[in-house]
Amino acid sequence: MEVCSLEAIHDDVVKKVKIKMPNDDDLLKLSDLYKAMGDLTRIRILSALVHSEMCVCDLAALLEMTQSAISHQLRVLRQAHLVNYRKEGKVVYYSLDDDHIKMLYEQGLVHVLHQH
């Protein structure tokens, strides 16, 4: 294994990059965002919501899961600000929080499909 004998070989590069890097709090939030997306059930839910706003019952039917399991995962996605909800009478409809979430999903999928 190669080991650097100096603290920083290219001090100018290190300084330039350090200025541009987000602070650790923001990077932790980004890490949490990807953790929330990093579950098969949750990414399946996001995949469905890319195409349409849906209620828990419809998501459960689509994904062949219980409403309870879907609700649990939606709670995680809501806490991560990945999905929003609105109530219409007794029915709660879920959608992606904003276009950034759709973009994150779509860009990730393009990356995965490009690897084939």
Any descriptors?
alpha+beta, 116 residues, three-stranded antiparallel beta sheet, single chain
CA radius of gyration is 19 Å
β-strand number: 3
**What ranges have pLDDT less than 50 throughout 5 or more consecutive residues?**
none
Please write the string of helix (H) and strand (E) elements: HHHEHHEEH
What is the helical fraction, as a range of percent? 55-70%
Gross geometry:
elongated
Look at the structure and give the mean pLDDT.
94
Structural summary, described in words:
This protein has 116 residues and is α+β, with helices and mostly antiparallel strands. Helix content is 63%, strand content 12%. It has helices spanning 11-20, 24-37, 40-51, 56-63, 67-79, 99-114; strands at 54-55, 83-88, 91-96. It has a three-stranded antiparallel beta sheet with strand order 1-3-2. The protein starts with 10 loop residues before the first helix and ends with a helix.
Describe the structure concisely for a colleague.
The chain has six helices and three strands. The protein is elongated and about 65 Å long.
How do the strands and helices of this protein lay out in sequence?
Layout (H helix, E strand, L loop, with lengths): L10 H10 L3 H14 L2 H12 L2 E2 H8 L3 H13 L3 E6 L2 E6 L2 H16 L2
Antiparallel strand pairs: 1-3, 2-3
Helix pairs in contact: 4-5
